[in-house]
Amino acid sequence: MSATSYGWLVLASPLAGTLIVALGWRALPGKLPGWIGTAAILLAFLASIGALVDLLDHAEEERQLVDSLWTYAATGDFNVDLAILVDPLSVFMCLVVTGVSFLIHLYSVAYMGGDRGYARYFAYLNFFVFSMLVLVLAANFVILIIGWAFVGAASYLLISYWYRRTTAVAAGIKAFVINVIGDVALVVAAFLILDKAGSLDFLPVFEGAGERFGENEGTLVAACLLLLVGAFAKSAQLPLHTWLPDAMEGPTPVSALIHAATMVTAGVYLIARMHPLFEQAPTAADVGAIIGCATLLFAGTVALVVTDLKRVIAYSTISQIGYMVMGVSVAAYGAGLFHLMTHAFFKALLFMGAGSVIGAMAGIQDMDRMGGFRRAMPFTFVTFTV
Predict the structure, then answer these.
(1) Phi and psi torsions of 180, nearest 5°
(2) Which of 235, 61, 38 is closest to 135 using CA atoms?
(3) What pTM value is reported for the model?
(4) Contact, 347 vs 320, CB < 8 A?
(5) Residues 284/221, Cβ–Cβ less than 8 Å
(6) Could you state, in chain order, the average pLDDT of each consecutive group of 10 residues for the chain (386 residues)?
(7) Under a CB-based contact definition with an 8 Å cutoff, are residues 301 and 362 in contact?
(8) In the chain, beta strands by DSSP E
């Protein structure tokens, strides 16, 4: 099998999991929806490994493979394909997203066991992972924007999962609205790039960036700043960060999924993916670095005084994403993406450890009322320390 075939399999697995659980929820007994959802993500993870192994067989300059299923939209001499781009960056993101999501699904099978919306939860969770994989595998701006919008919708469904709680619904709406600001900015950026470059496919746009755009050309700087607005809305950077602490209203595994590997790192991925454009527009890259730096200081200091256990971890996430945004904005792509991967695992561990603590405290999240867990919960103590 080729790397692109594995890429399509990566997308098909969580989509199949979503449809099976969503359509068959009446017929699926007990924890079966959870196991089906988890198996779908495991399959996607194995397919990601297959894509990685196949990609390593190619020479270094031939590791950008595009595969198209059909023409998505065509008008005149302009067309957009439903296509995926399999390259080192997208495979790296697929491995992180599916790897961490698989562990979070596995944790959820038991964690959500007593919940009456069990099948609905796993349908949403699989849909979220599918959306995120569409975003990272997109070969052009149109598919990227579709994945971007799907992730926003899925995050709304998951944050508002306990819809009988007014705070959860309000938090979901807030996350959705702030994300839509980013969606609009992304669409306008795509129009600006299309107008100058004459294409929406990533590889032709990137290859011609040096010829079509002068350094710090007005249109390009505007497009890159709009891309940054999209990235900041998804990645909760100043001033679009307020939805993230409120997103704690969702179940704890959802907090782990949204704040660890997937949604909040989409902005970092976007800046890394668009690096040929940002290198032509250093002014926009500087703006990204400055806001990343401001965010990491601001959120780190807020986290010192918050007493809600999950909100502390949320502010820590905003701070860590600030480091990543700063890294990819100053062209330290290796460092920024390395931190993205390590953060995905340690933040998921922290959230799942916090879920264990909150469960033991019968739902209490106030840290002023906690202490002495090392003796009571040695296993959770070890995971938190890790």
Answers:
(1) -65, -35
(2) 235
(3) 0.89
(4) yes
(5) yes
(6) 84 90 80 87 92 84 78 77 87 90 87 79 90 90 89 88 86 88 90 83 82 80 89 83 78 78 82 87 88 89 85 86 89 88 85 81 76 80 82
(7) no
(8) 65-75, 78-86
